[in-house]
Amino acid sequence: MSSATLISIEEYLSTSYRPDRDFVDGRILERKLGERDHSRLQTELSSYLNSRRKQWAIWVYVEQRVQVQPTRFRVPDICVVAGSQPEEQVFRKPPFICVEILSKDDRMEEMQERIDDYLAFGVRYVWLLNPRTRRAYFYTMEGTREVKDGFLRTENPQVVVPLAEIFAES
Prior knowledge:
- This protein has helices spanning 9-13, 36-50, 53-56, 108-121, 163-167; strands at residues 22-24, 27-29, 58-62, 66-69, 72-74, 78-82, 97-101, 125-130, 135-140, 143-146, 151-154, 159-162.
- By secondary structure, it is α+β, with helices and mostly antiparallel strands.
- The strands form 3 sheets. A 6-stranded mixed beta sheet has the order 3-6-7-8-9-10, sandwiched between helices. Strands 2-1-5-4 form a 4-stranded antiparallel beta sheet, covered by helices on one side.
- Strand 7, helix 4 (108-121) and strand 8 (125-130) form a beta-alpha-beta unit.
């Protein structure tokens, strides 16, 4: 749900929201989260990735602000940066992976807009996970696919995440 009042980027960046919110063209957009299955899956996946960060040369961030366009900031559930650790507090370079975990009230139309923002910004992989159905999808500039073999994957660097392990505790 968005507020009717438009605010400046400066005001958005200097304000703390709990939970953090997206900023799209002057509007603050609430993020739907806060339920156990969402939180559990976010914790499991971020822990799995973070425990392998040295092996894969990645940095894992939970709910990190990312400026995807001059007037758009998104806050993915998890983002992964490959290579060296970012120096900026708000990411203005595309992460390697952005992860969104569906909440029961998420609308696919709104989620698709988020995914499109990430891809247009240059994010190489967008992962979408549904904790209730235990299904996962990945998006790249080449297209979208449901994960059927049980593993989320990337290349350069190669990251492999077994869904059975991630969904086991959620």
